[in-house]
Amino acid sequence: MANIADIAILVLLIVASTPHTTEATKHVVPWMIPATQNSSFYSNLLANTKFNLNDILFFNYTTGTHNVVTLSKDDFKACNVKKKMETFDTGPTMFELNRTGEYYFACAFPFHCSLGQKLSVNVMASSSSPEAAPAKAPSPASRLSAAVTFPALLMVIAINILF
Ligand SMILES: *[C@@H]1O[C@H](CO)[C@@H](O)[C@H](O)[C@H]1NC(C)=O
Ligand SMILES: *[C@@H]1O[C@H](CO)[C@@H](O)[C@H](O)[C@H]1NC(C)=O
Ligand SMILES: *[C@@H]1O[C@H](CO)[C@@H](O)[C@H](O)[C@H]1NC(C)=O
Ligand SMILES: [Cu+2]
User: Fold this and answer.
1) Does the pLDDT value for residue 112 go beyond 90?
2) What is the annotated signal peptide range for this record (predicted)?
3) Which CATH superfamily is domain 24-141 in?
């Protein structure tokens, strides 16, 4: 029968194998006009997604049906797509998030942005360099506590099984 020491080792192994947030993640974004006019469609869709430095945004669309442009915050709010900074016309578009902070994307096809095809993301530094995180981002401590809570829960379950 398993003893406390075995359980403790098991828990340690689980902690050690928990994936680190430093790996780049590819985020697939279905790039389209929301079914109903909805400026918060993409922010809702990605509300629980954490964007880390060097992650990839994969804007999934067919060339000629949409495009991807980057905008300033004000032009994003106003859907002023003519003030675009960069344009990507070939779908799908892979965009590397190679700096921290806010990014503002939209589709520059007529009316698509005002119908809700716009996306902003806030890129946080990965856990290896928390000092580079912008002030608005959730603190590394909150991510750390999530990582610690899970094994602690397992420990409680293991102890409950034993006694
Ligand atoms: C906007 O899109 C989000 C995400 O799909 C959805 O939860 C919300 O109900 C939509 N709002 C409207 C007004 O359609
Ligand atoms: C991109 O969209 C197409 C059409 O909806 C879909 O078949 C394909 O699986 C999507 N690609 C990814 C990587 O999700
Ligand atoms: C990020 O990539 C863009 C375009 O690929 C490039 O212009 C920019 O210099 C890069 N920024 C950093 C911080 O590497
Ligand atoms: Cu579009």
Assistant:
1) yes
2) 1-24
3) Cupredoxins -  blue copper proteins (2.60.40.420)
Q: What does the mean pLDDT of the chain come to?
A: 76
For the segment 54-72, the average pLDDT, to the nearest whole number, is 98
Amino acid at residue number 131:
E
Contact assessment for residue 84 and residue 71, using Cβ atoms and an 8 Å cutoff: yes
The span from the CA of 36 to the CA of 116, in Å, is: 8
Q: Cα–Cα distance between 11 and 73 in angstroms, integer?
A: 45
Domain positions in the chain are 1-21+145-163, 24-141
Q: Which of 97, 122, 93, 119 is nearest to 106 (CA)?
A: 119
Pocket of ligand 3 contains residue 77 by CB under 6 Å: no
Q: Which atom of ligand 1 is nearest to the CA of 36?
A: 14
Q: How far apart are CA 153 and CA 33, in angstroms?
A: 42
Instruction: For residue 96, report the distance from its CA to the centre of ligand 3, in Å.
Output: 9
Residue 68's φ and ψ, nearest 5 degrees, are -130, 125
Predicted pLDDT of residue 142: 43
Ligand 4 center–CA 68 separation, angstroms:
8
